[in-house]
Write a structure and sequence with these properties.
alpha/beta, seven-stranded mixed sheet, three-stranded antiparallel sheet, 13 helices, binds pyridoxal-5'-phosphate
Length: about 375
């Protein structure tokens, strides 16, 4: 049996090695390392996959969020409403731009931002809502877009963990997450569902003006070479990464199916166990299982985490400390927040290995070790 890992990028690579190696070599032969055909082809293919008018590749998912806030004209002192139960990148970039993150609760079933909590947190300074499609499941975008419309707010989707997720509205229309708000942002960090062999990210929008601004800001604020109209940054997707991602994009749907199959297997194995809550699947979207995260009930989580590690089974706590309790947000009044559901989740969640290469033998071992600990 192959050793267990949270993500097995090596075995995944070996299955497409010939295609990937040829694509990388082609970039080397072209010696077009920055920009060029590989990057523009990938941007076009990814926009098509998403059904989005524009896809602007950039250096990573964190930059994508920062550039999105800059392109929408968010200014120091403005407020953005975000979940606290997220990876730090979502909220860190707001702070970097001197925009105040307003942390709100998540729905404890979906782990995504609670629309009712959003509405209560709106003030005259609120400019945007930043839903995070955590672990691969969509936030309640229909309600979020309605709130945004009512209060004239922007929506920036953090789709780093949910690329390929289909969200269905009550009228039956379906859209990919990341294309529902004003701007969608994603990450190609190697462990992501569409992972590069290094860093990468992208932004999506249907708005031509916004797309121009995103492009300009990601390229030193320049409108044409050496003419810099706005303050920007340097955020480029590397051509080799683009070439690799373009190959992997052709496999994305099969990667998602493999993750969903692995999730089904876990669900069945843990079904009926009162101490383990398997991931809830909302009826309005197709969970792409970036993570397979359990909520433990009456189990010593650290003990389980340690027991699994001792038995060769990796597990992770995403995230042990919510954003509002991170030291970096002391200056933003982080410690004054009361977010009991977020605290409750951060004390109980544990993620098991999930990736495209998991087989039933590996999953049987993982499940048996989890159950051994619980039944001890
Ligand atoms: C929810 C979320 N937002 C943003 C990011 C940032 O992406 P990157 O690591 O590419 O900067 C990540 C990935 O790590 C993430 O999981």
């Amino acid at each position: 049996m192959r050793p267990l890992q949270m993500v097995d990028t090596k075995t995944q690579y070996l299955k497409i090695k010939q295609e990937v190696d040829a694509a990388v070599l082609a970039v080397m032969e072209s010696s077009q390392f920055i920009g060029g055909k590989a990057v523009s082809d990938f941007g076009t293919h990814l926009a098509t996959y998403h059904g989005s008018k524009h896809c602007i590749p950039c250096a990573n998912g964190t930059d994508a969020l920062q550039i999105a806030m800059m392109a929408l004209g968010l200014e120091p002192g403005d407020e953005v409403i975000t979940p606290s139960f997220t990876y730090i990148a979502t909220v860190e970039v707001a702070a970097l731009l001197h925009i105040k993150p307003i942390f709100v609760e998540v729905d404890p079933k979906t782990f995504c931002i609670d629309p009712e909590a959003i509405e209560k947190a709106i003030t005259p300074k609120t400019k945007a809502i930043i839903p995070v499609h955590l672990y691969g499941q969509a936030a309640d975008m229909e309600k979020i877009m309605a709130i945004a419309k009512k209060h004239d707010l922007f929506v920036i989707e953090d789709n780093a963990q949910a690329i390929g997720c289909d969200y269905t509205f009550s009228d039956g229309t379906t859209k990919k997450t990341g294309t529902i708000g004003h701007i969608g942002c994603t990450s190609f960090y190697p462990s992501k569902n569409l992972g590069a062999f290094g860093d990468g990210g992208a932004m999506f929008t249907d708005d031509d003006d916004v797309a121009n601004k995103l492009r300009m800001i990601a390229s030193h604020g320049q409108s044409k070479r050496y003419y810099h109209d706005v303050v920007g940054c340097n955020s480029r997707l590397d051509a080799m990464q683009a070439a690799i991602l373009d190959i992997k994009l052709q496999h994305l749907d099969e990667y998602i199916d493999a993750r969903r199959k692995a999730a089904d297997y876990y669900d069945a194995a843990f079904a009926g166990n009162k101490m383990i809550n398997t991931p809830f699947r909302a009826g309005n979207n197709k969970h792409v299982f970036h993570q397979y995260t359990l909520i433990l009930d009456g189990i010593d989580r650290d003990g389980l985490n340690q027991y699994l590690a001792e038995n060769g089974v990796p597990s992770m706590i995403y995230y042990p400390v919510p954003a509002h309790k991170q030291k970096m947000f002391d200056a933003f009044g982080g410690s004054e927040y009361q977010l009991p559901l977020t605290d409750w989740l951060t004390e109980r969640v544990i993620s098991l290995p999930i990736h495209t290469e998991l087989d039933s033998e590996q999953q049987d071992l993982i499940v048996s070790k989890v159950l051994d600990y619980i039944n001890k």
